[in-house]
Fold:
Amino acid sequence: ASTGNTAVADTPSGMDPAFAAQFEKIQRTFVSGLPQRLHDIQQAAEPHARHVALHRLAGAAGGYDFADLSLLARKTMEAQQAGDDTLLQQALEQLAQAIAEAMRAV
Structure:
């Protein structure tokens, strides 16, 4: 079952061990790309580019069983859409912290 944390999720019971090992490898690959994703989000030249990068992160994180990270990416998109720079900066900081935690966990 999923831990719901940003760390690599637990293997669901009943999952084929070979599939579970492959999924874990894919998760580690995803996590290794998180610093670049964060950089792209933080350095986006215009709001649409940031929105697209956040949307992609939210979807990928959810697909790779990183529910908290997906939620934070969506929260950051909402802050941007609200036009609240303070809220956006707070959300970006939380996102960066969650990515750092995921990097330490693998």
Observations:
- Residues 19 and 93 are 34 Å apart (CA to CA).
- Residues 1-9 have pLDDT under 50 and may be disordered.
